[in-house]
Amino acid sequence: MAQIIGYIGTSHIPAIGAAIAAHRQQDPYWKHFFDGYPPARQWLESNKPDVVVMFYNDHGLNFFLDKMPTFAVGAAAQYANADEGWGLPNFGTYRGYPELSWHILEQLLDDEFDPVSCQEMLVDHAFTVPMKLLWPDGNPDLRTVPIVINTVQHPLPSARRCFKFGQSVGRAIASWPERLKVLIMGTGGLSHQLDGQRAGFINKAFDMLCLEQIESQPEALTHYDTTELVRIAGTQGVELLNWIAARGALEGQVRRVHSHYHVPISNTAAALLVLERQPTTAPA
Ligand code: DHB
Ligand code: FE
């Protein structure tokens, strides 16, 4: 049976990808940010997931403002990176897991969600930057299921809907018959606003609350409506919806392995949270 082993929430800022490509990890601007990631990599090294199911938002690469699915699930054998406009180097191609993707899609439809199924899908910085942060040397065996949530074009799905969507994905994984270790990821956030009068807006107090509540009481975050989230976290801070959806996939107890927070990277409060799922029954 497939087992969800943990959760990683991380920011996905394009400038991180540029810094990695230019080997700037030790520069004064970058050092503290990059120093946050080795503990996450150590946890991955000990726990070795077979599959990553990643919730994130597409930034105009597959879906532009003219056609915007609320939820889309990748169901391809592989996912190539392409440049959505930031001029980042190409981070290559990631292995898919179409059988698991279709199983997740079937569960979602059974649970009355109507996602778009994507048998072709490109991945942008919101997928590749977190992968590069966690597996800097790549991991060709790792299979992936990319799940895209609209956090870009209003109307957005509510936090409650995203959490329930994640719960449905969690149910699908729990009923997958093969023995697999699955890592759930949510990328984006935390607070940031890239344009408009409040460009550069960051809300550290809210970010701290999010890190706390994503760990210990994620449903508390589902009480904010999306307009409130824009007000509290910034126009792009609503990428928190990806973290909330991803957290919906984990049931039971979790333990915080590691967290890190650095303000700012580019215009964003950069955060990392690693949660380990605790066994439901005591070992014999
Ligand atoms: C930035 C942050 C993002 O989440 C993003 O998708 C693009 C840019 C930034 O802070 O520069
Ligand atoms: Fe983003």
Structure report:
Strands 1, 2, 3, 4, 5, 6, 7, 8, 9, 10 and 11 form an 11-stranded mixed β-sheet that branches. The chain is α/β, with parallel strands linked by helices and 284 residues long. 33% of the residues lie in helices and 24% in strands. The model has no long low-confidence stretch (mean pLDDT 97). The structure holds 3,4-dihydroxybenzoic acid and fe (iii) ion.
List keywords for this structure.
284 residues; alpha/beta; 11-stranded mixed sheet; 9 helices; 11 strands; 33% helix; binds 3,4-dihydroxybenzoic acid; binds fe (iii) ion
List the helices and strands and how they pair.
Layout lengths: L1 E9 L3 H8 L6 H7 L3 H10 L3 E6 L14 E4 L3 E4 L11 E4 L1 H13 L5 E3 L3 E2 L1 H10 L8 E7 L9 H16 L5 E8 L16 H13 L9 H8 L6 H9 L5 E12 L2 E10 L7
Helix pairs in contact: 1-5, 4-6, 6-9
Give the structure's gist in a few sentences.
With 284 residues, the protein is of the alpha/beta class. It is 33% helix and 24% strand.
* Residue windows where pLDDT falls under 50 for at least 5 positions: none
List the helices and strands in order: EHHHEEEEHEEHEHEHHHEE
Helix/strand-derived class?
A: alpha/beta
The average pLDDT value, as a whole number, equals 97
- Helical stretch count? 9
User: Can you summarize the main beta sheet?
Assistant: 11 strands, mixed
Name the shape in a single word: globular
**Helix share bin:** 25-40%
N-to-C CA distance: 19 Å
The percent range for strand residues is: 15-25%
Oligomer: single chain
Radius of gyration: 17 Å
List of distinct ligands in this structure: 3,4-dihydroxybenzoic acid, fe (iii) ion
What is the β-strand count?
11
